[in-house]
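Re: the 199-residue chain
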Amino acid sequence: MTFNAAVPLNSDSPSIFPAQNQTNMARLQTLLGADHQFNLSAAADDGYHNIIHMTQQAPSGALAATGRGYVKSVNGRIHDFYMDDAGREFQITPTIPIYAAVNFVGSSTAIRFGFNIASVVRNGAGDYTINFTTALPSNNYIVTGMCMRDVTTGGVIQIKPDSNYGAQVSTTSVRVLTVSLDSNTPRDMVAVFVQISGG
């Protein structure tokens, strides 16, 4: 079935147009229905995307008041990109997902900000168990963090020492210590910032 934009020709008999038009309409339905919800009668999801197939593009330059989404090859793999109206390109994929993040007060464990954080439990000075609302896919994630102290000698954050990795790093929680740099002992900090990410 081939779409033909040239029909009907001036020389064509009107009697062949219905068949020509049916061929064209069937082709359009096939094209639109491949990636979109194509209903034969009116429905609330008319035209919704089922999937978006994107061919490689290479836009360039500024385009006033217009953003562009496209894909292109990077290191032999196809990735998603966005170009703003000034012609600046941003690579969107691949990403390392953030599973959880928290900013809390060291002494009270009051959460200033939390994403996928059920609670923070203070086990002792500078010793915290961070509990996730939704369990993570595995305990092979990355923990990054920093802390803010009330004096310039500062402090560091680390996973609680243990010879058993899974005892402190699990799919439902992670246990961390904030340690003062001057005494090398666990200490509550003014603020503790922890982010959990993985692949």
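The CA atoms of residues 129 and 175 lie 4 Å apart.
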